[in-house]
Task: inverse folding
């Protein structure tokens, strides 16, 4: 492999172990590596995840060797689902959904089955996140940093950590009381989804009912955010302003529909938000059922199974019945 890539064996081993992070490579060398991997037959989808993996490395590196909080990577761009999944892989050992069906090739010797951080590094990482969230809240000027650090802190399921995160999130419930779009909408959304991750679904249901449904600006912000989160917006975003585009022009609707359809079963705690977003997407683009027969059939089948199993709110059941009917009768 090293010979095929034109590097020495120590360099390749350094990449594999993390001793030599890919993010430290020169831009030209990294571009050449990616293209060489593709030419050698690497799966393009997996090669494409290198960006998210390097983003995750930067966030972990900032926690294990912290610099000035103003330069924190969580304050520099809005991270995506792929980055969050890469972080979860390192923090919890859960394989990203994009990689779950890949066949792992066994190697000689003691090789880790996942890039899981050691217990001490995980504790340090989460402690840094909690300190970062608190510092950003006190400064009053780090909304993006605060909400992203607080959301990632919810990955720590230790009893004391979970109690701290739940207490901190509940202390922000005031932002959930606002109706429709407000300057605190993104914080309210992150707060509600993080509480759902910790097993408290009611704030998310309240957010959908109070701060999302039937408000055009909030509905547009939710669709724009989902498109970005699922990779439908190609350009990285430095802040949350992109969500305020009422024209929904930065992404392709079928791409978002596909991401929501195939991602719903990976996030059972957020099913109600997925359902409402599907309903809102269909409302904004009623032609979608005719765009892809295979995708329409898949969504209709999944909607039917979800209706049969229950576990969603009354609003979600109404919206899901609409989605199921329209996609079942697409012709």
Result:
């Amino acid at each position: 492999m090293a010979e095929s890539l034109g590097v020495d064996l120590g360099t390749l081993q350094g990449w594999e172990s993390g001793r030599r992070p890919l993010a430290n490579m020169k831009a030209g060398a990294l571009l050449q590596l990616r293209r060489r991997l593709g030419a050698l037959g690497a799966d393009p989808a997996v090669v494409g995840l290198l960006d998210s993996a390097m983003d995750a490395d930067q966030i972990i590196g900032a926690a294990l060797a912290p610099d000035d909080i103003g330069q924190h990577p969580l304050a520099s761009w809005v991270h995506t689902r792929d980055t969050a999944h890469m972080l979860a892989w390192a923090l919890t050992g859960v394989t990203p959904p994009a990689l779950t069906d890949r066949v792992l090739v066994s190697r000689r010797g003691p090789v880790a089955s996942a890039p899981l951080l050691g217990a001490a590094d995980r504790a340090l990482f989460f402690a840094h996140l909690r300190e970062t969230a608190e510092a950003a809240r006190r400064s009053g000027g780090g909304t993006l940093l605060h909400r992203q650090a607080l959301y990632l802190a919810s990955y720590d399921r230790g009893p004391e950590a979970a109690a701290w995160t739940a207490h901190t999130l509940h202390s922000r419930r005031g932002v959930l009381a606002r109706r429709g779009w407000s300057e605190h909408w993104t914080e309210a959304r992150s707060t509600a989804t993080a509480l759902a991750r910790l097993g408290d679904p009611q704030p998310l249901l309240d957010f959908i009912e109070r701060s999302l449904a039937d408000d055009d600006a909030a509905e547009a912000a939710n669709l724009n955010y989902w498109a970005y989160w699922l990779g439908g917006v190609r350009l990285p975003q430095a802040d949350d302003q992109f969500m305020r585009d009422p024209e929904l022009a930065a992404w392709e609707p079928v791409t978002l529909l596909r991401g929501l359809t195939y991602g719903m079963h990976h996030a059972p705690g957020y099913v109600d938000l997925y359902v409402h977003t599907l309903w809102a997407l269909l409302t904004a683009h009623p032609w979608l059922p005719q765009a892809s027969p295979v995708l329409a059939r898949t969504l209709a089948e999944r909607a039917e199974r979800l209706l049969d199993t229950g576990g969603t709110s009354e609003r979600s059941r109404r919206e899901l019945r609409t989605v199921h009917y329209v996609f079942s009768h697409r012709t």
The chain is about 60% helix and 0% strand.
